[in-house]
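Give me the fold.
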Amino acid sequence: MFTFNLSAESDRRIIELTGTISEKYNIKMILTIRDQNVLGYYFYETYKIKILLDGKIDGAKITLNESPDLETEFKVGFVGYLKDNTIIGNWIDTNKRKSLTFKLAIVSDKTFKPSEAINKIEGNYLNIYNSDKYLSSVNLEYINDNIFCFLITNGTEGGCTGYIEKLIEFENLSSGKYSGELCDEIKMSFHADTLIVKERNCPWHGMRCPFDGKYFKKD
């Protein structure tokens, strides 16, 4: 029987699930569990577009926010409970007051320890121009198959803020790009110990606090 508890020797756990929403929409889901934190994604079999999930585990309860934003309040995602080797619950859209049942079966469950190459990428990066008037950072966390969750936050003394949390796949663990809703492109690449971020038409921030820049990994 599957349990969410991780042993001391297990850095994290990756589980793969398949099932349906409303008994008719076939989906697949990948979740990486680290302590009580969960990162992952799911996609509809018909479209294959990966959708970020970021959530928590509390006992047998699991809450997964779908493509979260700056606000911490749950808006869209999955709320379910572990029962045997399944997770059963509801996919909820609070804005549309919509709730659909879901049922997912665990088809793969493995423990995982990051490689040296992954450890080198994972972590928090600070913009080289950070100051008392400007703060910008990028956080990268591994999920699976060279896919990472990235979180960019920034802000200025004048009140300009930026925030985006999405998925990115690094080819050869060296470079990758994101494109999606409200963002034509964000490119990330590693040069020595520097993370280079370049954006194109990505208004997830104010005019005076772009995501572009060079970032050094925080020790």
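The chain has two domains: 12-112, 116-217.
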